[in-house]
Amino acid sequence: MNNDNSQQQHTQTEREEEENGRGGAFAVSENFGLLLKHYRVKVKDMTLKQLEEACQVSSSYLNRIERGERLSPSWPTVIRIAESLEIPYSLLLATTFQIKENQPEQSLADLLIRDNYFINGKLLNKEIKSLLVMINEFILEESEWSSQSKIHDLYRLSEMIDELKMLI
């Protein structure tokens, strides 16, 4: 009975957030939904229904957050979801809140170089980051990707990916 009462409270909170259009006192970044979906699917291998049961937030509301249709869940809702997915608080805060005032736009290369992150549990070093920047620049800037160059471009890209895989 207590669980039903708790579920009704959470559903009521979600309804209020939907009606007010802002839920809590803050808006989360559009990357927040991506983070949740990544942890739910790739890291925890959970369905929306399993996450609903774990955090007591409706699966339809979770789905809307993941799709970026809800950018203002309440802070308690954010915490319940993050704890259920075991998202580190540092990653949660860095992804959830993004101060955009007076912050210049950055290229993908800038982000790849500046931020620390990991792949397959390994923190990326300078050499790996450099290679990721090279792959990005090759795909988006250097290669022609024309019908005449596509085979050659794919071969060069595959060589860079092989090198990346060896370093990781």
Task: Describe this protein's structure.
It is a single chain. The protein has 168 residues and is mostly helical. Helix content is 65%, strand content 2%. It has a two-stranded antiparallel sheet with strand order 1-2. A hairpin with a 2-residue loop joins strand 1 (118-119) and strand 2 (122-123). Helix 7 runs antiparallel to helix 8 and helix 8 runs antiparallel to helix 9 (150-167). The longest helix has 19 residues, at 2-20. Residues 12-25 have low confidence and may be disordered.
Query: What is the end-to-end distance?
Result: 50 Å
Q: Please identify the structural class as seen in this structure.
A: mainly alpha
Mean pLDDT: 80
Could you describe the largest sheet, including whether it forms a barrel?
A: 2 strands, antiparallel
Helix percentage: 55-70%
The percent range for strand residues is under 5%
Biggest sheet, strands in spatial order? 1-2
Q: How many strand segments?
A: 2
Count of individual helical segments: 9
Shape field: elongated
Offer a quick outline of the entry.
By secondary structure, the protein is mostly helical.
Name some characteristics of this structure.
mainly alpha; two-stranded antiparallel ribbon; 9 helices; 2 strands
List the helices and strands and how they pair.
Layout: H1 2-20, H2 31-43, H3 48-55, H4 59-66, H5 75-85, H6 89-96, H7 108-114, E1 118-119, E2 122-123, H8 126-142, H9 150-167
Antiparallel strand pairs: 1-2
